[in-house]
Amino acid sequence: MTNFNVGTVHEFSVSRKIDNGFVLMNEHGEVMLHVNDTKETVDIDETVKAFLYHDKQGKIVATTYLPDIDFNTYGWVEVVDMVDNLGVFVDIGIPKHILVSKDDLPLLNRIWPIVHDQLYVCLQTDQKGRLLAKPATENIIEQYAEPAPESLLNNTISGRVYRANKVGSFLVTEEGYQGFIHYTERKEEPRLGEWVNGRIIDVKSVGTLNISLRPVKEEALGEDAEQILAYLSSNKGEMTFTDKSSPDAIRDQFNISKAAFKRALGTLMKQEKIKQEDGKTLLIPKE
């Protein structure tokens, strides 16, 4: 009787050849090695090391392609497909792509990783014994992280998002530094697994980073002002948003803070491009 678990690596002896591959054998039983699951030619009686997984029929089969991750070892893997209501599939280095369940992904599909994004995962099995890839928790990332030096303040930095929630996005850099992007420091929410470029706005005493994806104030002011002008132009030259509007209403419409909104309004009024009358902001027609 065969007694194997998927997601494990074993040594086998090549017992015999069959039409579409080989039969491998050890003291626990026999398992099939499909010809497409071999990295190179194998010979009868040769000893091979193989990884076990379920094929499309649910049968345990072997491959001599060995993944870099296992049930205790994490690694970065690439997303190769996304299926709504199921999750995303990743390439762990074997012929079959492995599922990251939707239960381990953000609630909003638009923040799910897309093809070529990467996730930091290990292997796990579900209650039915099926092999899955499990994203690392915050505790795992903390074990892997390195403290960032204070000298990085105001430098640009790149990293990959490993966690996303309402408060903001969490990333880790190639150097192993942990970073946090507060929701007010981004115009669009990055995807889980996305590679992003930002600016370090604070280095915490514990060595973690606060990062902004927004341009510096001078650049952002121009960008915010352009956004306001575009909104006015598409709304017949007027809007009910003014410097008295609530911060939530401003963020919902323009995805910027009230302070940034007021700075942009002030610039546009100084340039005599807009004016405020009767609780409205009006576009001044060009002469």
UniProtKB/TrEMBL annotation:
Q: Which top-rank group of organisms is this from?
A: Bacteria
Domain S1 motif: from-to ranges: 154-214
Q: Which InterPro entries match?
A: CvfB_fam, CvfB_S1_2nd, CvfB_S1_3rd, CvfB_S1_st, CvfB_WH, NA-bd_OB-fold, S1_domain, WH-like_DNA-bd_sf
Cross-referenced Gene3D superfamilies: Nucleic acid-binding proteins, Winged helix-like DNA-binding domain superfamily/Winged helix DNA-binding domain
MF terms (GO), sorted A to Z: nucleic acid binding
Give the matching Pfam families.
CvfB_1st (PF21191), CvfB_2nd (PF21543), S1_2 (PF13509), WHD_CvfB (PF17783)
Say which family it is in: Belongs to the CvfB family.
Q: What is this protein called?
A: S1 motif domain-containing protein
The organism is Pontibacillus yanchengensis
